[in-house]
Amino acid sequence: MSSICVIGAGGSGLVAAKVLLADGHDVVVLEREVQLGGVWAPWRAFPGLTTQTPGAQFQFSDFAFPAGLPAWPPAADVHAYLRAYAERFGVAERIRFGSEVVGLVPGDDGGWTVAVRRGGEVTRERFDRVVVSCGIFDRPVLPAVAGREEFERAGGRVLHSAHCTDPALLEGRRVVIVGIQKTATDLAVYAAGHGGAVDMVYRRPRWKLPRRFLGVLGIADALFTRSFDAQSRLATSVPLPTRRQRIAHRVLGRPARIQFRVVELILRAQFRLRRVGMVPDNRVDDEAHCGVTIETPGFFRALRRGAIATHRTVIDRLEPGVAVLATGERIAADTVVYATGYRLELPFLTGDAAARVFDADGLLRLYRNVLPPDVPSLAFVGFNSAIASPLAAEVAAHWLAAHWAGRMRLPDAAAMHAHIEAELRWRLERWPESTRGLRNACVGLQHAYMDALMREMGRPPKVPGLRAAVRALRPGDYAALLDRGS
Question: How far apart are CA 232 and CA 227, in angstroms?
Fold first, then answer.
């Protein structure tokens, strides 16, 4: 039995702790906040926040959402679900709240000394292994903007979307939102629906997918399937190591790419993108690697009726009560919200250990998005963002447990490095923006990724027949497979 420190009590940290506890390890979870939940904790949940994946896919394999919830659960229900999960599997009692990890020092014996700040005091504790699960949405990016101090002295507010949790900042206010991804549109729709005057400032339009295509076909049935995963693999030229795969790509790649052009035609028509001036410059498959997002219900309708105004530019400066755009346009503003994403930083990981995890460009170099080949007692769970993130983290946690227990054999370090290099090179060629923006913490093709982990564990999912190939992903299908051998 090993002593293991799990850093972070969001969804990925909870599932990592649950799996490792079941494997007989002595697990401690260190969480800097006073409650579990990560981005779903009450103080992180902005008005209108829901899952970006249907609840049927956004859950762990062995713990379903309670019956009667909305199909797309709101933040409060997700937080309650995670709390119930932690209590059900004995993780809650292992969490130390108010404990911020400020340093990791590797020991000569392969273990780690973990420095933890509680209040104003820093203490140190030794663990055999460490799992980093503090997540990829941890450090908000809030750009500097000229005139902010004067704007705020006059009563205005400038903040990141992560801190826009007070509805009073949006309701009945003159709101300027910077960004165009899901968080930005969520906030815009909420503000417009609660008496706010809303302007959105963004650099370029982005593709957004509907919850139901043409109001008929649900997104899970359309896109969260093995068949769509396979077609996407052909269309986007995922690294093709075998001759058979290369031939298949030459023969079937073009028809597979046509499906994306059809999707674009549907999106143009369903959202009337040309009418609202929101036709993206790129192709939808250019954003398929964690770049494309789900439409906030009512967003395009609000654009058409003028409830939300859009400006394809940037804010040049702020003046009292006004946001001045680079075009010279002046917008009345009480609240400016930057929905500008997060920066993946691990300030507690320094020196040689950090150099073995990040490359010179700051990109993660992890085998299967979990394991740094040269640091076997350090692992990452939750750095494999995907369509069904809870399930992806759960599969990764079981894979890690099997590796640490010696129940499976991985390639040697040189082979793992070669795999990482080939995968990263292809991702940077195919999806450079999302790969760099998320520092390579996104897996893209959900089924292919999880299948690879399951094969290495010796428990590949069986997919008999066409019906299984076109069926939407079901986390419950993995429950028995993951439980075997734990």
Answer: 9
Residue ranges of alpha helices (H) inside 432-478 are: 432-437, 446-456, 465-470
Tokens for 484, please give them: 């075997």
Q: Quick one: which of 425, 429, 427, 410 has its CA closest to 372?
A: 410
- Span 212-234, mean pLDDT? 88
The 3-state DSSP class for residue 357 equals: helix
Residues 11 and 134 in one domain: yes
Q: What would the two tokens of residue 328 be?
A: 């010279």
Phi, psi values for residue 119, rounded to 5°: 65, -125
Q: Which two tokens stand for residue 430?
A: 């195919």
Backbone angles phi, psi at 385, to 5 degrees: -55, 135
Range of the domain at 254: 142-341
Do 269 and 364 reside in the same domain of the chain? no
What whole-number distance in Å separates Cα of residue 337 and Cα of residue 323?
11
DSSP code at position 169: G
User: Residues for the chain: how many in total?
Assistant: 486
Name the burial class of residue 255, with classes exposed (0-12), middle (13-18) and buried (19+) by CB atoms within 10 angstroms of its CB. Answer: exposed
Give me the percent of the chain exceeding a pLDDT of 90: 77
Q: Which two tokens stand for residue 472?
A: 């939407």
Closest CA to 427 of 234, 286, 242, 293: 286
pLDDT of residue 254: 80
Residue 207 has pLDDT above 70, yes or no: yes
CA atoms within 13 Å, Cβ hemisphere of 467: 1
Q: What tokens does 402 get? A: 């099997």
104 with 150, same domain: the answer is no
**Domain boundary residue among 341, 364, 381?**
341
Q: What is the largest CA-CA distance in the chain?
A: 66
Between CA 229 and CA 167, with CA 64 as vertex, the angle to 5 degrees is 90
- Cβ neighbors of 24 (< 8 A, separation 6 or more) are 1
What is the dihedral sign for C-alpha 49, 54, 57, 59?
A: positive
DSSP string for residues in 54-70? -TTTSSBTTBPPPTT--
DSSP 350: -
Q: 80: how many CB neighbours lie within 10 A of its CB?
A: 16
Tokens 């500008």 locate to 340
The DSSP element (H or E) to which 332 belongs, if any, is strand 330-332
The structure tokens listed for 15 are 């599932």
Q: Assess whether pLDDT exceeds 90 at residue 158.
A: yes
